[in-house]
Amino acid sequence: MNDAREVVVLRYGHRPGRDDxxxxxxxxxxxxxxxxxxxxxxxxxxxxxTVRDITGRFGGPFAVELRDDQKAIVREFDGVVVHLTMYGExxxxxxxxxxxxxxxxxxxxxxxxxxxxDLLVVVGGxxxxxxxxxxxxxxxxxxxxxxxxxAGLAVFLDRLFDGAELGxxxxxxxxxxxxxxxxxxxxxx
Amino acid sequence: MNDAREVVVLRYGHRPGRDDxxxxxxxxxxxxxxxxxxxxxxxxxxxxxTVRDITGRFGGPFAVELRDDQKAIVREFDGVVVHLTMYGExxxxxxxxxxxxxxxxxxxxxxxxxxxxDLLVVVGGxxxxxxxxxxxxxxxxxxxxxxxxxAGLAVFLDRLFDGAELGxxxxxxxxxxxxxxxxxxxxxx
Lengths: 189, 189
Prior knowledge:
Two copies of one chain form a homodimer.
Chain A: E1 7-12, H1 20-32, E2 37-41, H2 45-58, E3 63-67, H3 70-76, E4 80-90, H4 91-102, E5 119-124, H5 130-135, E6 138-141, H6 149-160, E7 175-178, E8 185-188
């Protein structure tokens, strides 16, 4: 969503069949709420196809990747790693620090702004390895209650971008929904 | 979450098997992010059981109901009805009006505060009837992009409560997660 910084969502783990819809929703939520790219495990081809199809119809830019080296992606990521987990620090306590770390903060003096850094947001599916907790720059809990990785990702992205993601424009869409008080209007884009 | 006002989430439509996890996640998200009660269609007994089980272990108060009269619930609801749909008005444009309608606004002069009213948040599953669009006081889109009803609900609740839901306390829990920078600590509550 931002030229100088890439926000990537990594879905960690996927059980074909059982997780298909959740993984698809992780990808669609990442796209709709301002991430630039989602990485799925390579056994999540069906979810990747759905997210690419939606991007083709409703616009981008948004990239979908299938990779078999989740551990290496996390280990070698050149930027800030956030791991969303119910065991993490409270999002309301660390969101400012995350924004500062990737240069999304707005300091009082502009010359004190942090440089833009890429951000990897890891969303657990199956059990994630302990190494992920250790590698993450921030383990973040959107509440410390069990709920939904999709809900956690959504609230995290909305707070990361401070709502700016809701106003983004879409390129190369072939259709567009017109927001309405009462209606279901879709027009050619 | 609030003594004077009940926030109820209604999951509209459920296909057993196919929707089980999504419906469960709607319920868990409603609980974690400040709603007081969730209503599932009566064929979603398995999801209801899971949400009740989590409430028993991690605390409440939070109620789970199974009902077979979804249309009547919406039609007869004594309060404000919000329908989350990608065709609706943009959440950033209407969230203040919703907060005012249920008395969650904070006007400059306290005597101008709206009285608390109950709120029904309808989350579509299967195709919802046109009557729902007409009955809703607000059709609200968390983006006008196709993504996830769980993500939409999460962002809507976080904005409705202005983040206050993240600090809520839980009663009658038998366990509690301790937020940590690196760790997975659960203690007896």
